[in-house]
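Model the whole thing, not chain by chain.
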Amino acid sequence: METLNHAKVTRVALVGAGAVGASFAYQLTTASLCEELVIIDINKAKAEGEAMDLNHGVSFASSPMRVWAGDYADCGAADIVVITAGAPQKPGETRLDLVEKNAKIMKSMIGEIMASGFDGMIIIASNPVDIMTHLAWKYSGLPKHRVFGSGTVLDTSRLRYMLGDYFNVDPRNCHAYIMGEHGDTEFAAWSNARIYGKSVEQLLEENDEYTWEDLEDIYVNVRDAAYHIIERKGATYYAIGLGLLRLVKAVLRNENTLLTVGAYLDGEYGLHDIHIGVPAIINRQGVRQVVEIELSEEEKQKMHHSADVLMKTMQPVL
Ligand code: 6V0
């Protein structure tokens, strides 16, 4: 009997079974996006424990999935490798303080991943994420559209949540982006923001309860959100876990959807040879296209300042 032979099994490999990795893995088991999830961590016992715990919930998921603690050889057959391994921020530490520590870790991980024969897509969350993404891309030798970072996807989600709260509307109706470094120099692209179809200027004109001061406070709260959470619970992981799931879904479902990721710039926004948070269309190929939105002069300066800070910080590890 003739059998159908398009049974390619979709595999996601997760490198880093810490708080961020485990949150992402947990979401993935409920999402029916892939058949296999392999978890890799230098701490094998942690990866094993996470795989056991997740497998014990698989009977409650909408479709079965195979989860196991594996090693780098298992990346060879993966469609996507998601990297969340590395030292996290300690209280008072900026993301950029992590650069040297995590650059070394990234080099060894990418070496092992590529040695497996991997030829898929890499998504990075480890901080400082823009720099780690750039290094991962360089070390991997993969085409630029196939290596991207979570960039400002989380920051944009934070912004949309806070704008939704302020304007009392569904965050999904708040189209506004945080761009630049995922970190202290990121900025809100207010000139492009649309809240239920209206520009921010228009909303402020129509209702004098809304002010630019409040919007500036919202931006500052978005920018400093990780510090506020780390002070209280030591780390942030649920929202970035969901953000990573969103990126993986955009790829595996070939969504052609706009998300603010850490994409490689090759002249867009006047910047070259850098990964930084920008709106981009994501599909099965990865970054299909970086979208150049019209920025105000002030926003352009902020973008360039953010890129300068990243470039300077990255120099010693390039
Ligand atoms: P964590 O809970 O300490 O987990 C890190 C994991 O990485 C641990 O399980 C380690 O054993 C593992 N690890 C360390 N070195 C290696 C190695 N060489 N090979 C394999 N595994 C290794 O940290 P957490 O999960 O909280 O954070 C992980 C990374 O995500 C950090 O760099 C964070 O700063 C970063 N985040 C990024 C965010 C974003 O928006 N991009 C948001 C939050 C955290």
